[in-house]
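Sanity check. The docking grid for S-adenosylmethionine depends on where the pocket ends up, so I'm generating a full predicted complex first rather than guessing from homology. Inputs follow.
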Amino acid sequence: MRQKHLKYVNQVLLKEQDVVVDVEQIPIDHRPTFLEIGSGKGLFITSIAKDHPENHYIAMEVNINVCYRILEKKNEINLTNLTIVLGDAEGLLNYFSPQSIDGLYLNFSDPWPKKKHHKRRLTFPRFLEKYQVILKNQAFIQFRTDHIDLFDNSIEYMHPYMLIESIEYDLPESSYMTEYEIKKRKLGPIYQLIGRITHHAKETL
Ligand SMILES: C[S@@+](CC[C@H](N)C(=O)[O-])C[C@H]1O[C@@H](n2cnc3c(N)ncnc32)[C@H](O)[C@@H]1O
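Predicted complex below; grid placement will be based on this.
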């Protein structure tokens, strides 16, 4: 995602507004906790957090400028149940304890079409191994994309790690859509995969 550089946005400003900018453990309490990785400008996660004040949501985004857009939305609607993390999924295990997360959203993750870059995909096995650690048994992963190759490859990547509960090749519009989804819907179908973590699945590999 190409993003406008915002001159006034820096880590100090974000930290002052409770964005997690250091690599540190994120406090998780008794509430059901859901994580989105690569939140972009945050429309999806702020909308769902607004409608579900009983849950704790965490938006992780590596780009500081888009991260600031999530913060703007959070402040605009006074969300108290959203934690924003300026961070990279590579370091996931430094932020979250094992089996602490109830569900993971991956929305329109970068497709990295060249084979030599596939390992950077957020659905690639080396990331799935991290997700398996932080997700509770029976937690879900919901993956949405407009990129058919990434989608088909992701089904293959995910299969050994979880039970595939549903695969949709033309997902209807819903109440919770990202900025990308709204844009990409005008161009073609949206694909969605929902998997459920079973900590025993890995043992059968
Ligand atoms: C194609 S954009 C989609 C943004 C948003 N999910 C949407 O659907 O509108 C992918 C986003 O993932 C972020 N991203 C990519 N790799 C990441 C990583 N390793 N950790 C955290 N965020 C990442 C990018 O900075 C970018 O904002």
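Relevant for the grid: Residues 6 and 34 are 28 Å apart (CA to CA).
Also worth noting: Residues 21-204 form a domain with the Rossmann fold fold (CATH 3.40.50.150).
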